[in-house]
Amino acid sequence: MLLRSFLAKTLFGLLAVSLLVLNVISISASGELSPKPLRSAAALAAEEIQFTSREKRYDSKSPNYVVEVRYPEITGGDAGRGAKFNIEVNNLIAKRIALFKNEVAAVGQAGAGRCTLKIDYHVTFSNGRLISVAFPTDSLLTPSDHREHLTLCLTYDLQAGAGLSMADIFKPETDFLRIMAEYCIPRLTAQLGQSSNADWIKRGASATGENYKVWNLTPGGIEITFDPDQVAGPSAGVQQVVVPFSRLRPLIATGSPVFALT
């Protein structure tokens, strides 16, 4: 009888402990006591940064051109800390428009029809501190000229109140451009398929600052944009390759705000 009573109590104790463990596991799985899951960059952007799209149009008869611009502006409760970002965006666009006007003046009225410039944007990354924006541009100087597609880019640190360059991201002693080129060249070859040209790709994607000047942050890595005529003929269009953070992490400076993304 004593043995039977001891076994019963032992079994009851084990059952109670098991139920307690299962209850803890259940609570943890429900997320109530677990850390919040990481949110996507898009969700963070929607929650933490308020963007408004601004549109402007500049119409001129002499010289004969039209400029259409769409760009982001930080507004609402974030307007104070985003003031310098807004200025940076306006300066970037103003420089592109000024260059276009100079090109129009150089062409003159040799071609009948209007010269056009369009500037658009899309936010590739935003997490409340870092904002990365790509600005595709499309210009046509004369009806007989081919359209020129160039991409502008801006990656901005709201906390520092300044734009980021690649040199700000990587350790000074690292050859990050070589690592990027080694990653991008075979992928460009695969993307372009039968239209790929090894010499063209090597020239346009070799490890130089000029070839990698158009870059943006994404949730998964650094996106490099190769504009038409850079790594292939104009008909191939824009080519983009995302170099993953997993490849770049050993090269990124631990003091850089980008390091936390890796």
Detailed description of the structure:
By secondary structure, the chain is α+β, with helices and mostly antiparallel strands. It has two domains: 40-164, Fervidobacterium nodosum Rt17-B1 like (Heat Shock Protein 90, 2-Layer Sandwich), CATH 3.30.565; 169-262, Actin, Chain A, domain 4, CATH 3.90.640.20. 36% of the residues lie in helices and 26% in strands. Strands 1, 2, 3, 4, 5, 6 and 7 form a seven-stranded mixed beta sheet that branches. Strand 5 (130-140) and strand 6 form a beta hairpin. Helix 5 (176-192) runs antiparallel to helix 6. The radius of gyration is 27 Å and the shape is flat. Mean pLDDT is 84; it is low at 1-47.
Low-confidence stretches: 1-47
Estimate the mean pLDDT confidence: 84
H/E element string?
HHEEHEEEEEHHHEEEH
Number of domains: 2
Distance between the termini: 64 Å
Number of strands: 10
* Shape descriptor: flat
Proportion of residues in helical segments? 25-40%
Question: Which short descriptors sum up this protein?
Answer:
alpha+beta, Heat Shock Protein 90, 2 domains, 3-stranded antiparallel sheet, 10 strands, disordered N terminus
